[in-house]
Amino acid sequence: MQWRFTMNAQSLRMLGRAGARVASAAVATLALVSATAGSVMAQTAGAYPAKPLHIVVGFPPGGPVDTLARAIGEKLSLSMGQQVLVENVAGATGIIANQRVAKSAPDGYTLLMGASTIPIQATLKKSLPYDTVRDLTPIAYVGDSPFLLVVPVASPVRNMRELVAHIKASPGKLSYGSAGTGSGNHLSGELMKKMAGLDITHVPYKGAAPAEVDVMGGHVSYIFDAFTSGLKLVQSGRLRALAVTTEARSPAAPDIPTMAESGFPGFSVQTWYGLIGPGNLPLDLVRRLNEEVNKALALPDLQARLMAMGLQARPQTAAQFSSFVKNEVEKWAAVIKDSGVQQED
Predict the structure, then answer these.
(1) Topology at the third CATH level for domain 160-262
(2) Could you say which of 32, 55, 86, 281 would form a disulfide bridge with 106 (CB–CB 3.0 to 4.6 Å)?
(3) Mind listing the pLDDT tens digit for each residue in 256-311?
């Protein structure tokens, strides 16, 4: 049996009009999709930045994080052609600011001047309102400064090997100071204890200044001091420096060996700062911001400002910075869990 399908002239005319309407609608839809895609691409590429950028700082004005944010912001404003505003959102050792950026839109307009406290807090705090690795995107490493292990000038020890022997000769009887529980210099001391198997008591102070006073007076055996303030006390003859905590010696004190050179291979601790964005920040924006920050760090006047703060500029790719932060989270998680240190929310 054969089926025949026939249409008269009127039917063909109607079909033609319907097809034209369908074709017209399809073209309009494609045009809308194309325009939307073009808008998104422009948002994350050529048109960025189309409005002012905000760098959030989790500490009060005048401190090192704030100073760095403003210095970097000035350079980004000049090179990117948009105003860069610094917002101080102090509180909870930076956690409030971290949360604000973590929960912001991943459009490159809300950024964070982060610090080395971020990976420490990932384990030190019982809970955080964000996931450090998932909800924050490392963009550009700005710079860092070592801690300086210092002892009283009257101490019998003159290098790290002598200090370890001195502590092991009096297990449980000696102490070291810090600027407070969970601080970078406290956890540096815990890392040293772990690596050398030391039995020594931690004495937390309310800030670095009283800890420095007590080590000068011989009330504690040593502290991992902030580099700039510690070096001044060493140069004035009030403390003796045994080691710096970074992998390489500091250009500001090239005669002071590293912890790694002094019997602690792999010991690497620094106070660091870097530009961070929210999670899921598009890769093209990450690359653009990383390039802009690294260009700024190559400028002699910015390098001089960092050097005056005791910091060394260390440009990295975003991938290197991201890997570094993940390693920092893992390193401090192990130290904190071994030491039993934890802070309440």
Answers:
(1) D-Maltodextrin-Binding Protein; domain 2 (3.40.190)
(2) 281
(3) 999 999 999 999 999 999 999 999 999 999 999 999 999 999 999 999 999 999 99
CA–CA distance, 120 with 226 (Å, rounded to integer):
17
Name the nearest CA neighbour of 281 among 327, 318, 317: 318
In the chain, which residues fall in CATH 3.40.190.10?
160-262
Q: What single-letter DSSP state applies at residue 1?
A: -
* Alpha helical stretches, state H, 45-182: 64-80, 95-102, 117-124, 160-168
Task: Identify the CA nearest to 275 among candidates 71, 18, 36.
Answer: 71
pLDDT tens digits, one per residue of 134-168: 999 999 999 999 999 999 999 999 999 999 999 99
Q: Which of 131, 132, 134 is nearest to 114 (CA)?
A: 132
* Domain covering 53-145+270-339 in this structure, CATH number: 3.40.190.150
**Euclidean distance between CA atoms 255 and 260, whole angstroms:** 14
Q: Is 188 exposed, middle or buried (0-12, 13-18, 19+ CB in 10 A)?
A: buried
Contacts of 98 (CB under 8 A, 6+ apart): 58, 112, 114, 118, 121, 128, 130, 136
